[in-house]
Amino acid sequence: MPNERLRDAMHRNRLTPTDLAAVVGVDPKTVERWITQDRVPYPRHRHTLAARLGETQSYLWPDALPAARAAEVTESELIQIYSRRGSIPIELWRRLLTTATQQISILVYAGLFLPEQHPNLITILRERAEAGARVRILLGDPDSPEVAQRGAEEGIGNAISAKIRNVLTWYEKLDGVDGVSLGLHGTTLYNSIYQFDEEMLVNPHVFGFPAAHAPTLHLRRIAGGDLFNLYADSFDRIWSASRPTRQDREAS
């Protein structure tokens, strides 16, 4: 049967069989067989193709990698585990923020520590956007029951809502900057996510504890791995269900 996943990935990337054939140096008819007959490319080609199409090998060719090998690849995406978010070196945050060229995606309730640790955060985000990066920032809706519940669980009342309103005053300075989008979400936040191109920091939340006291995973995307894309897809789902901030609505 046809490989509809490969066909769809090519369509989304506006690539023809001839284009994809040129990427790995094969005949376009070979690419056609990959699509119409679900032939599996050689391993040396699969890595390059998955990277070019922005998908994992396990998604495009589910049966190509043995389960044990697929697990090894996914585990390789984990660079380091920090016992607390607060123990992440500030130099790492600075490198990730200042070197991103394609995208910066931030999912938090408040994330007030970012502008507090980086007084020039707004300047950095503006410069990244002006250089062509897509900047998306998702904050919790301060009036949502989910944010109120989180404050109750941590025993701090309405403090999180107040932090969100505080941090909004920082990000409002980016209003009108091309490439920057700011939204509010009302989801149960299981993880805070910070993506910088092909690297990501994932901060799982622990019941009753502030996010700064919970562990954080440092991930780097590898073609064939699933862990990075799992969290990237989670961000995209929440983004699609979010609403723009007040100032964005007024500007539209």
In short:
The termini are far apart.
Written account of the structure:
The protein is of the alpha+beta class and 252 residues long. The chain folds into two domains: 4-64, Orthogonal Bundle (434 Repressor (Amino-terminal Domain)); 76-251, Endonuclease, Chain A (2-Layer Sandwich), CATH 3.30.870.10. Helix content is 47%, strand content 17%. It has 13 helices and eight strands. Strands 1-7-6-5-2-3-4-8 form an eight-stranded mixed sheet, with helices on both faces. β5 (191-196) and β6 (199-204) form a beta hairpin. α2 (17-24) packs across α3. It is elongated and about 60 Å long. Residues 247-252 have low confidence and may be disordered.
Key traits:
252 residues, Endonuclease, Chain A, alpha+beta, 13 helices, 434 Repressor (Amino-terminal Domain), disordered C terminus
Write the layout of secondary structure elements.
Elements: H1 4-12, H2 17-24, H3 28-36, H4 43-53, H5 57-60, H6 67-76, E1 78-82, H7 90-99, E2 103-107, H8 113-117, H9 121-130, E3 134-140, H10 145-154, H11 159-171, E4 180-185, E5 191-196, E6 199-204, E7 216-220, H12 227-240, E8 243-244, H13 246-251
Parallel strand pairs: 2-3, 3-4
Antiparallel strand pairs: 1-7, 2-5, 4-8, 5-6, 6-7
Helix pairs in contact: 2-3
